[in-house]
């Protein structure tokens, strides 16, 4: 990604199609993005927020407007 060898300026990892973490280039800095699309994922946001605050990382909550593509989650 930082060596510009990927097709896009980000890549993601998923274990089940729902839990996804992305690494995205942001003007030479790497953003780590966790996508929350179910209520069960919400507790992890607090853990991530706490870790960021404790270690002096910036935390930005945002949305790309993504909607789940799983009938049981709609």
Largest sheet: 3 strands, antiparallel
Principal-axes geometry comes out as flat
Beta-strand level of the residues, as a percent range? 25-35%
Strand order of the largest sheet: 1-2-3
The count of helical stretches stands at 1
Q: Count of DSSP E strands?
A: 3
CA distance, first residue to last residue: 33 Å
* Count of spatially separate domains: 1
DSSP helix fraction: 10-25%
Residue-averaged pLDDT, rounded? Answer: 81
| Cα radius of gyration in angstroms | 14 Å
Low-confidence stretches: none
- The SSE string, one letter per element, is EEEH
SS-based class: alpha+beta
Summarize the SSE layout with pairings:
Elements: E1 10-14, E2 20-26, E3 29-35, H1 42-54
Antiparallel strand pairs: 1-2, 2-3
Written account of the structure:
- The chain has 74 residues and is α+β, with helices and mostly antiparallel strands.
- The chain has one domain.
- Helix content is 18%, strand content 26%.
- The chain is built from 1 helix and 3 strands, in the order βββα.
- It has a 3-stranded antiparallel β-sheet with strand order 1-2-3, with no helix packed on it.
- The longest helix is centred in the middle third of the chain and has 13 residues.
- It is flat.
Short description:
Helices cover 18% and strands 26% of the residues. By secondary structure, the chain is an alpha+beta fold. It has one domain (10-61).
């Amino acid at each position: 990604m930082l060596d510009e060898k990927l097709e896009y300026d980000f890549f993601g990892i998923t274990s089940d199609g729902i839990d996804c973490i992305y690494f995205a280039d942001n003007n030479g800095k790497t953003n780590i993005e966790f996508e929350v699309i179910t209520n069960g994922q919400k507790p992890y946001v607090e853990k991530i927020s706490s870790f960021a605050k404790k270690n002096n990382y910036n935390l930005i909550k945002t949305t790309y407007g993504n909607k789940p593509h799983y009938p049981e989650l709609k």
